[in-house]
Amino acid sequence: MFARWTLTIAFALVVAALIGAVASVFNPEAPLVTGLVFAAATLGPAGALGWFLFVSPKTVTPDPNAEDNVENTWLEKAASAAFVDLLVLLSIALAVVSVSGRSPDPQLLLLGAVVVAMCDVAIRYVVTARRER
Amino acid sequence: MRNSLTERRAERGWSQAELAERLGVSRQTIISIEKGRFDPSLPLAFRLAREFGTSIEDLFDPEP
Q: Where is the HTH cro/C1-type domain (chain B) (predicted)?
């Protein structure tokens, strides 16, 4: 298990360093700061991915009956509804952008879509769980 | 879908948590099935029927 945790930490450091390096290449104004910020911001998710790849296969036992639980149904309902919500929202946004001729910042648009999707699923899950509890 | 889960469970003196553990599902799943708010999957319905030593038809009534 020690070897797996060591591998996880090494994996996280390498992935974070690589992403930091790529980010610094695309931001030549302040490459060092950009690289450090991106590496620091990526370290956590990279560590989580490393844990998922190297540690969890030995420590987490998959639940063979997971799909039989009512909570799984709630999550599926919430995710399906959120998908439709996101589709409608993006369609409206596309129509507005097309008509107005103004292009929003793509980074902001994608961030907004991700945040809306995540919040939508969470809210819908809670509402469904309260209603069907 | 109506069912006789609550009565059969009471006959055996099992708690909802105990039945959930026997079936490998969450306690909330048992609560929702007993209230008729969640229709179990076919594999779970078979496990429930087996646990109570009966058939799915005896355990569940398709009439709303």
A: 5-59
